[in-house]
Amino acid sequence: MNxxxxxxxxxxxxxxxxxxxxxxxxxxxxxxxxxxxxxQITRLEKNLNIHLFERSTRSMxxxxxxxxxxxxxxQALILLDEAEQFAQDSHEKLTGIIKITAPLPLGRQQLxxxxxxxxxxxxxxxxxxxxxxxxxxxxxxDIDLAIRVAxxxxxxxxxxxxxxxxxxxxxxxxxxxxxGIPKHPADLYQHQCLLFSTQGMSQIIWKLNNxxxxxxxxxxSQMVADSGDxxxxxxxxxxxIALRESWEVAELIRxxxxxxxxxxxxxxxxxIYIVRTIRAPIPARIKYFIDFLIxxxxxxxxxx
Length: 304
Hints:
Blueprint: H1 8-20, H2 23-30, H3 34-48, E1 53-55, E2 60-62, H4 64-90, E3 96-102, H5 104-121, E4 125-131, E5 145-149, E6 157-165, E7 167-171, H6 173-179, E8 193-196, E9 203-209, E10 214-220, E11 224-225, H7 228-236, E12 241-245, H8 246-254, E13 259-261, E14 270-277, H9 284-300
Parallel strand pairs: 3-4, 3-5, 8-11, 8-12
Antiparallel strand pairs: 1-2, 5-14, 6-14, 7-12, 7-13, 9-10
InterPro entries: LysR-type_TF_proteobact-type, LysR_HTH_N, LysR_subst-bd, WH-like_DNA-bd_sf, WH_DNA-bd_sf
Keywords: DNA-binding, Transcription, Transcription regulation
GO molecular function, one term: sequence-specific DNA binding
């Protein structure tokens, strides 16, 4: 075995020296003497047969080789730390409650199934699920995780992407027989559009595009709801045309209860994220469930 691999602590000290800016500062942070730090760096350089630092009486800076190795060592140490944490977690019994929030349709159709599967794998895990089409503050509501269908802007949350979300236009056959089938997005101005709004606004913008063109429609309607479930129900009952998630209405389209209107047009893809609060260390149950969700979502959304 290469002698370097036997001295991981030398590599960790090397990284700490870079972060601290000097041997003395690194020694203070590590509760070691500067001499000890210097000896371990010298030993690492000898094992690698490379000078890591250019030293003078007043300054110290990384060599070009040192910069390259520092980058690779950082990546390697992250992987080693993750492997060590995984080994520790694998011996732990997953217990506790996971508090999670999600939009109503997504929670009802996808999250309900996934939490049930996870609980069957880990019977000592429990869930508290809060479904809402309103944005929930994870810190204020003491919630571990949230599924968000949006471009994220909150830097106080840690996010991992699950999938891409696409919305399509749908209407009931009865509605289209009565009012006609739109041939172009501009025709929607002549139709009853079912609009989503959490602010109670009766005027909403739909952004639609195909491979050649983009359109922005400012629509008004008598039928506005802050629940995706209600919009889907209204469209199924023949009240108008709705812009709904493709995964939500797929079964209704296959059953003939809804028709895909203007199939060449859709809104921009919106990412689906699983987000959590910033906390360390991450409880094993949270980490395992996030990894589980990502794996399951790839089955439900194979294009991602």
